[in-house]
Structure formats: C-alpha cells, structure tokens
Amino acid sequence: MIKGGIMKRNKSVKKELMELYKNKCMLTLLETKITFHHIKKRQYGGKKILENGGLVEYRLHQWLHNEIELHDRELYQLINECLILYKMCYEQGKEQLLEQYEKEVAPEYIKIKEKKENGNNRNKY
Prior knowledge:
Elements: H1 2-20, E1 34-38, E2 53-57, H2 58-71, H3 73-91, H4 95-117
Antiparallel strand pairs: 1-2
Helix pairs in contact: 2-3
C-alpha cells in the first residue's frame, strides 16, 4: 500500500515537472521516454517534490545510477548540479544561458544516449 502511494506521488510530481519543462529530458532536451530523477536521493532524505526532481531520459537515468553514481561520485554530483542550474535558468527566463546549454551541454548528453542505444559500452562512461 505504501509503495503504491509513493509511486502515485512520484507520478504526480513527474507530471507537474513535465508540464513546467515541456515534456523534455533536462539533459538532452529531447522529447523521449522520461523518468523522474531524485536530485537528492530518497535514501538520503530527498523528498518527492518539484525542487528535488529532474526529468531524465530513461537510458541516461540508468547510466546515471548504474555507472556514474557507482564509479564517479564527483561526476554524478556535477550532473545533479547541472539539472539544478538548468531548472533555475528555465524558471528565471535566462534565455542566453539556456541557448548556451542547448548548444554546448545537451549535445554531449545526446552522444552518451546514442552510445547507450547502440550498445557501445566500451568507453568507461
């Protein structure tokens, strides 16, 4: 019963995030299969609230937890900070920074996503 309630809350927060941020992965900026990412993990007290949530493409979310979090905590933290900063810029209408993100940051995550889709796991990340 509790688990069902948690899933329902995650879905409602995810839905709110999708409405606010236009149904896009906050890393690639692509419209794709989106998952809810806890910026501060539940096991460390992270709540299921808008401020602690990010929208991440399904395969990138798996990569983030199954590879990066386990092997490179600093990079994991930087990616979470990237989500926080993206949300701040979006909420504050910082168009110039959002354009820079779109040109410089999102393409790097798209490359990672494509490698994962093509099964190219030879690289460390």
